[in-house]
Structure formats: structure tokens, C-alpha cells
Task: inverse folding
């Protein structure tokens, strides 16, 4: 609870009565005729009934069990067993007197080390940073509003500062994801059209498909395989249209509030409650609440949020332009050279018919779960299998440029369009490549292609591209995966003489570092995207207690 998302995603209200019931239950179960300790019963009753009865998040329940296994285990009865590597926290031997026990307790530090919970020392730094952020927010919230002179030292009034922020945001964000440019008379005379939108192209494509179907029926031909030119057969095109609609609605909310706020600051309209909240938010670089309600999950401040939104719009605009250009080539429509996208003309040899990015920016999706489902649906249609029988197999594609320094440098921004559309090889035949993800609480080692301990004082690191490859799961594979995840004692007691032996850590992927969200019908948080299996040289419980997770975006 102290360490926030690195501990539990949701802060649970554990009470002293939970501890008392657990102690009474421990005392009752220890009375066995043969002298054995029912470890499995202790773990279940404590982790699932007493403390676990308050836990609503599945990943928090996994964390709780991993922490309890450090205390409720047969090794805890062995001499010299310690709960931490420094030996400070340990079970007291039976030979200790009351005075010696008191002396040991008095010698313990006032604040517990994160190591006793199996966490990295960076967890303490994260706790201190969160406290500092809360203190700054409180100071900013209670400081007086200087409407006449504005911010001290700036020489501008609050109205001038807000109008500048409104102007900057309006210049950085387009009105819509796609700018519809009608064709000129010269273009129509040359047999070409202006730059159309994806929805208009989709409607035109569906009309052409219906006409082609009617012609086949008139000739007495029966319907055969799906037409590859039919855009409705691609689940990813459907996902793209939905994402564009969501971002268009968000952009409409943003620009409407900006125009209304400008008029309100000038005194031409009444300053409503929402506009006043947006006014105050701009002064402290916070995203207005009305925008947050219409937007995706994000913990970024206002400046970073606007920049991130502009990158998302550029990504989907370029993807839509790629689909439209590909369909125009198939339909024999000539686009004027002045209206062609310079990016789409430089895709590389053999990629002129590509209708999707080389690699997908999963962080940019309004609803990333829908995109992953679309990938599975496309594969199911292609292979003729049930989509319910498919799951993802994950392969981290470490490139030569993915050095330790590059992956640890999270401050250096990446070019979204270059990574998605221009760099690297052609996309894989099955599945998709995904980039732009981060690790929280660990780092990726490009030499061993596995998880490693994070660098001191650095909580986040980048991940290389990951290949999400749809595979069909058989019953035997499902049983093997379940046993490999649940049988932690076997992994923990495995021979360590082979450092190259890799285990798999089921790493949850979240949209933001907050991790918590509304509980969905699946039992997961709405902030949760999916679980990715990452290779590791350490047991899975090691990373569970460290709170290691993947993030779609950082807070800065």
C-alpha cells in the first residue's frame, strides 16, 4: 500500500482484525497430531479468505500470494532463514529470551526496507517521489490566484497566459484526424480526385463490392472466397475507422472548449463552470476534466498530453492515408502529386501495396484491447480457425540499435512515424510488431534477451519491438502453461547451475503507471491491456514481488 502501484494496484483497507484472525487461524492449524504444518491450507486461508477477501484485482491477488510465500514456507523453520538478503529481518530462534527479543525489535529501523517485501530499492525512491508530487500539488492548489498581475515574475496576467495556452494548443492540434480536401476542376478534368477520408473511401468500396456482387449474381455465379479488395473483410481497417471516430470526437471537444474559453476570457460569453475549471487547469498545466472524460487514459501534464495527442493523430492519419492510397491504386484512381503523402511514397521496395504500418504503436490506440482482438480476428479469417482458440505468442525482437544505453534512456523521444512506417524490414506474415512500450521496475537486457534488475534510481526503461504472433492453443499446451505458472516451488528449487535456463514471467501491460482503473466484467482493471510472457533468468515470483509491469506510456 505504501509503494503505490509497485505494491498493489488498488489501495486496500487492511485492518488489525485481519492480522488477529490470521494469527488465530495459524494457531488453530498448527495443532496437528503428526506435527506437520499444512502450508497450502495456511496460504489459501490467509491469501484467499482473510486478506484475499478484500482483494478485487487478480494481479494484486497474485502479488499477495507471492509475498505470503516468503513467510509461510517450510524454509522459514530452517536455522539461518532470513526474509531479506542482509539478514536483518529474520525469525527469532526459540532460545531467545524476552529481553533479547525486545532488544532485536528495538534495533529494527523505524521504516521498513522495501526488500522485506521482495521489492527493489527503487521502490523507496518511487514512494518519496509520489510524496513530493502530492506536496507540490497541495502547495499549488492553495496558492492565491493573481488575476491582476498574473504569475510572479512573468509580467503577464492570468488571462494573457490562458489565451497563449489556447493559441498554442489550437495550432498544434488539427480539427479532425483527416483533412478532407475536395478535388479542383483541373483535377476532375484529369480524372483524379482530391484527398478523401477513410469513411468516404470505405463507403465507395462497399458500393463497388455490392455492384460486383450483383454482376456475379446476374451471370449466375455463386459466391466464392472473400474478395481481397473488400475493406470490410479487414478487422484492422474497422479498428482504424473506430479509432479515427474516437479521436475526432475528442478533437471536437477540445476545439469547442478552446473557442468557448477564448470568448469567455474576452467577456463575450458567460464563464461557465466547465470553462472556469479549464481556465484554472491551464494555469497549473493540468488537463481539464471535460477533456479527460472524452479522452483516453493518461497521467501526463497538459503540455505533454497535447504533444502526445498530436502524435496519435499523426499516426492514425498516416495509417488512413496508406489505406486510401492502396485502394486508390487498386481502383485506378490517380491522386494529384501535390496531395500525395510524402511518407507513403517512401515505403521501400516491395511495400507499395501495404495497407498498414510496419510496426504498430500500441500506446497510441484509444482502445488497445480492440486492436489486439482485431489482429486475432484477421488471423482467424485467414487460417479458418475459431478466434476463441487463438492466443498470442510473444517474441521480443532485440535490434542492433537496442543497446543498454538506448533502452535505459527514456528521456530521448522516438519518432513515431519513422518507427511505424519507414524503418526496418517488412512486417511479419503472421501477427503484428508492436513498439513504444516501457518496463516499470525492471529492464530488458539485450545481451541475454531477458529481464534483469533495473538500474539504481531509474524506475523505467524501454522495451524493444515485440512480435505479437497469433497461435492456436491446444488443451495440452494450456495445461503446460498453467502448470509452469502455478508451480512456483519447482521453479524456485530448480538447479541454478545453468545460467542460460530461461523462465517465463507473465507480465501485465497497463495503459498508464497508475495501473488502477474501474473493475471490468473480466475481473481486470480497465487500465489493464493484456499479459505478455517475457523470458527471465529469475523465478516468476521474483518479479511479482517487485511489481514489474509493462506500460504503454510514462507520466512525463
Result:
Amino acid at each position: 500500500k505504501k509503494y503505490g502501484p509497485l505494491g498493489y494496484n488498488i489501495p486496500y483497507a487492511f485492518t488489525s482484525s485481519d492480522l488477529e484472525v490470521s494469527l488465530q487461524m495459524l494457531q488453530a492449524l498448527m495443532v496437528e497430531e503428526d506435527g506437520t504444518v499444512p502450508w497450502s491450507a495456511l496460504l489459501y486461508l490467509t491469501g484467499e479468505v482473510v486478506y484475499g477477501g478484500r482483494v478485487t484485482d487478480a494481479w494484486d491477488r497474485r502479488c499477495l500470494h507471492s509475498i505470503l510465500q516468503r513467510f509461510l514456507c517450510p524454509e522459514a523453520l530452517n536455522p539461518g532463514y532470513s526474509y531479506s538478503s542482509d539478514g536483518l529481518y529474520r525469525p527469532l530462534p526459540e532460545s531467545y529470551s524476552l529481553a533479547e527479543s525486545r532488544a532485536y525489535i528495538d534495533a529494527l529501523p523505524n521504516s521498513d526496507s522495501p526488500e522485506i517485501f521482495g521489492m527493489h530499492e527503487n521502490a523507496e525512491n518511487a514512494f518519496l517521489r509520489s510524496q513530493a508530487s502530492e506536496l507540490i500539488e497541495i502547495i499549488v492548489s492553495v496558492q492565491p490566484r493573481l488575476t491582476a498581475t498574473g504569475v510572479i515574475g512573468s509580467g503577464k496576467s492570468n488571462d494573457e497566459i490562458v489565451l497563449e495556452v489556447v493559441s498554442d494548443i489550437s495550432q498544434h492540434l488539427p480539427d479532425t484526424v483527416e483533412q478532407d480536401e475536395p478535388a479542383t476542376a483541373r483535377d476532375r478534368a484529369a480524372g483524379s480526385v482530391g484527398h478523401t477520408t477513410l469513411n468516404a473511401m470505405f463507403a465507395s468500396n462497399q458500393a463497388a463490392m455490392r455492384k460486383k456482387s450483383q454482376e456475379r449474381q446476374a451471370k449466375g455465379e455463386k459466391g466464392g472466397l472473400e474478395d481481397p479488395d473488400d475493406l470490410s473483410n479487414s478487422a484492422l481497417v474497422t479498428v482504424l475507422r473506430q479509432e479515427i471516430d474516437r479521436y475526432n470526437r475528442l478533437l471536437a471537444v477540445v476545439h469547442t472548449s478552446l473557442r468557448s474559453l477564448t470568448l469567455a476570457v474576452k467577456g463575450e460569453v458567460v464563464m461557465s463552470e466547465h470553462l472556469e475549471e479549464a481556465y484554472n487547469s491551464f494555469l497549473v498545466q493540468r488537463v481539464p476534466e471535460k477533456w479527460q472524460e472524452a479522452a483516453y487514459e493518461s497521467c501526463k501534464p497538459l503540455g505533454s498530453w497535447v504533444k502526445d495527442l498530436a502524435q496519435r493523430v499523426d499516426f492514425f492519419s498516416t495509417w488512413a492515408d496508406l489505406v486510401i492510397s492502396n485502394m486508390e491504386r487498386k481502383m485506378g484512381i490517380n491522386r494529384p502529386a501535390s496531395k500525395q503523402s510524402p511518407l507513403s511514397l517512401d515505403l521501400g521496395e516491395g511495400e507499395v501495396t501495404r495497407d498498414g504500418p510496419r510496426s504498430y504503436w500500441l500506446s497510441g490506440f484509444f482502445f488497445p484491447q480492440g486492436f489486439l482482438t482485431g489482429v486475432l480476428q484477421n488471423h482467424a479469417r485467414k487460417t479458418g480457425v475459431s478466434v476463441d482458440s487463438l492466443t498470442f505468442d510473444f517474441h521480443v525482437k532485440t535490434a542492433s540499435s537496442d543497446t543498454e544505453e538506448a533502452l535505459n534512456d527514456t528521456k530521448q523521444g522516438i519518432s513515431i512515424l519513422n518507427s511505424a512506417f519507414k524503418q526496418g524490414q517488412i512486417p511479419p506474415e503472421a501477427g503484428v510488431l508492436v513498439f513504444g512500450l516501457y518496463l516499470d521496475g525492471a529492464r530488458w537486457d539485450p545481451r541475454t534477451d531477458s529481464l534483469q534488475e533495473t538500474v539504481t534510481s531509474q524506475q523505467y526503461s524501454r522495451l524493444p519491438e515485440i512480435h505479437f504472433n497469433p497461435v492456436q492453443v491446444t488443451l495440452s499446451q494450456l495445461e503446460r502453461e498453467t502448470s509452469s505458472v502455478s508451480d512456483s516451488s519447482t521453479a524456485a528449487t530448480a538447479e541454478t547451475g545453468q545460467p542460460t535456463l530461461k523462465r517465463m514471467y507473465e507480465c501485465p501491460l497497463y495503459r498508464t503507471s497508475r495501473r488502477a482503473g474501474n473493475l471490468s466484467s473480466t475481473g481486470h482493471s480497465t487500465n489493464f491491456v493484456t499479459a505478455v510472457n517475457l523470458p527471465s533468468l529469475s523465478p516468476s515470483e521474483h518479479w511479482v514481488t517487485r511489481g514489474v509491469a509493462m506500460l504503454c506510456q510514462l507520466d512525463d
Remarks:
- The first helix runs from residue 16 to 29.
- Residues 244 and 316 are 7 Å apart (CA to CA).
- The chain has 18 helices and eleven strands.
